[in-house]
Structure formats: C-alpha cells, structure tokens
Write a structure and sequence with these properties.
Blueprint: H1 12-25, H2 36-62, H3 73-106, H4 117-120, H5 126-129, H6 141-145, H7 147-155, H8 157-172, E1 177-182, H9 190-194, H10 200-205, E2 209-214, E3 234-235, H11 236-261
Antiparallel strand pairs: 1-2, 2-3
C-alpha cells in the first residue's frame, strides 16, 4: 500500500483512447452513425467523474486535512466508505457504457444497440465477464474486439465481485464500515488549529484512518456470519489499491485492443 495513502491513477491511456475514438468518428473513417461518439464520450466523462469521486472520498478518510464540516470524521467514516464503493462501482459501469459504444461502431451485431433504450439498460459488467463460474461475456464482441481487456476482467473477477457486493450492501442494506485503525502521525499544529490539542477524546474524533476493515460476508445474515481472522478480513486500502491498478490497466488494454481490432481508413486527422 502507498504509505501516503495516495491512489496513483494514470488515466492517460483513456485520453489516448478518446482521441482514437474521435479519429474513428470522422466522416472519412467510420463516421458518427447513431451518435455513437456522444455515447462513448458521455460514458468516458462519467467514468472520469467517478474516479475523481473515489480519490476525493479516499483522501477525506485518510489524509490529515482540516475538516470543512462540523461533524467529526469518525461520524463521517461510513459516508466516505460507502461513497468510495459507489464511485468504484459506477466507474466500472461507465467504462462498460463507453466501450460498448466504441464496439458498436465497429460491429453493431456484437454489442448492445445504443439506439434502443431497453438494450441500454442491459449494459453492465456481465457484458464482459458473464455469469459465474464461466467467464463467457454476454456480448460476443468483447472477445473479438477487446480480447485482452476481457481476459483481464476475468483475471480480476474476485476484486470486481468484492466491489459490487460492498456497494450493493451499503446502498440497499446497512453500514459496511466495521472499524479499523487511526493514524498516529499528526502534522505539527493540526489539533491546535482545531482548538482540541491535549483532549485525547476529541483528537480521536478528528483523526483520519490508517486502515478500514470491511465485512468479509456483507450479504450473509448477521447470525450466520463466521468469525474471521484479521488476515481474512477485507481492508479498504487493499481493495482501493487493487481498483487503482485495475483501472490503469484497463485503459492500456482497451487502447491496445481498439487500435488492433478497429480498423480505420486513415490513422491521422485530415485537415478539412
């Protein structure tokens, strides 16, 4: 884990993918049939926003920053944790929406129809990874046009399942924050600025977290949950680092796949 609790997202490959999609959108290439590029970019920009949401709430939970609210951090921990999982889940969904639009212009028959409202409601991660235990995508286009991306999703199915499950429970059922550890390295003058220096109880309320423990069986009935050793519990920090790596690699693989499988007439912009 990063010692400074910084999630090091590198979204440059998504910018390059956006430029390749824009090039494909030109009339001398695939053209803007059915406003596919608007769908692609809408999904991509939604994805950017959700990744930013992960960064913001992760920072609020872990960094030594003076609060911009009156409530102590300990009372906001669940809010930040659940918001992180919402944004993780939504970022993944938005990624699928964008890639579906790019795949649609390459082969309408192998991706969901972006002109059909009912079809759009079916856009989900299952389009890429299908149902358990197989990893057969609901949409065949992912194996044909985004094979390395599809394979990478299958390799990370366990991480995705944890993210989806934690989000489902925090959204529909209950809290998912189970405790953890606080940081013990306050910067000089931090508590003095809050006017609580020396008051250990008050200091604890505004101390950011070093580790967040999550339930390993969030959907199980409470009385059926088995005791888990510390090493077997889910830690937010491990999941977040895995998510960061996953996002970075997905951009790289989606770009490589698109350039390999989606053929264009011209690979440079032509001045009109």
């Amino acid at each position: 884990m990063s010692s400074d609790y910084t999630l090091k997202f590198d979204l440059s490959s998504y910018g390059a993918l956006d430029q390749y999609a824009l090039l494909a959108d030109q009339k001398y290439n695939l053209g803007d049939i059915d406003d596919w590029f608007g769908n692609f970019r809408g999904g991509l920009y939604g994805f950017y926003s959700r990744v930013t949401g992960v960064q913001i709430h992760y920072s609020k939970l872990h960094d030594w920053v003076l609060p911009d609210y009156s409530l102590p951090l300990i009372k906001l921990a669940e809010y930040h944790v659940s918001s992180i999982f919402f944004n993780m889940d939504s970022a993944i969904e938005c990624m699928v929406f964008a890639i579906n639009a790019l795949g649609y212009i390459a082969n309408k028959d192998q991706f969901l129809d972006i002109t059909n409202g009912r079809a759009l409601t079916k856009i989900s991660p299952r389009n890429i990874i299908g149902k358990r235990p197989e990893c057969e995508p609901d949409c065949p286009g992912y194996k044909n046009y985004f094979p390395s991306l599809q394979s990478y999703w299958c390799e990370n199915r366990e991480l995705l399942s944890v993210i989806f499950e934690q989000h489902d429970v925090s959204k529909h059922r209950s809290t998912i924050y189970r405790g953890g550890q606080s940081r013990n390295d306050p910067p000089p003058g931090f508590f003095e600025k809050l006017g609580i220096a020396g008051n250990k109880v008050a200091e604890g309320l505004f101390t950011p977290l070093a580790e967040v423990i999550l339930s390993p069986e969030p959907k199980a009935l409470r009385y059926q949950r088995k005791h888990k050793e510390y090493k077997d519990t889910y830690k937010l920090e491990e999941i977040a680092e895995g998510f960061c790596t996953f996002i970075n690699m997905c951009g790289t693989k989606a770009l490589q796949d698109a350039k390999t499988t989606i053929k264009l007439n011209y690979y440079d912009f032509i001045k009109q």
